[in-house]
Amino acid sequence: MTTIFEAIAILRKVFDKYAGKEGDAKTLTKKELTDLLKEQLGGPPKQAEMDQFFKMLDNDGDGIVDFNEYVVLCATVCKGELTPVLR
Known about the structure:
The chain is mostly helical. The protein has helices spanning 3-18, 30-41, 47-57, 67-78, 83-86, and strands at residues 27-28, 65-66. It has one domain (3-86): EF-hand (Recoverin, domain 1, Orthogonal Bundle), CATH 1.10.238.
């Protein structure tokens, strides 16, 4: 397996660990995403920031974050654009 596929597999594994605890196993609710951020990145933003952040990630406005939207989160973290929000 190539490095890029290994990285995608890790992203999927983390997503799957948190998705589905409150509903569909193929999506993250706001609480599931908050739990993911808390455990994986050292803590979620404050509630108002989390609401804004979730709205930004929920690109199609359906109230959940799917895997594609989650990948946007991961890319944003890698680019260092969430550092002020997650402190």
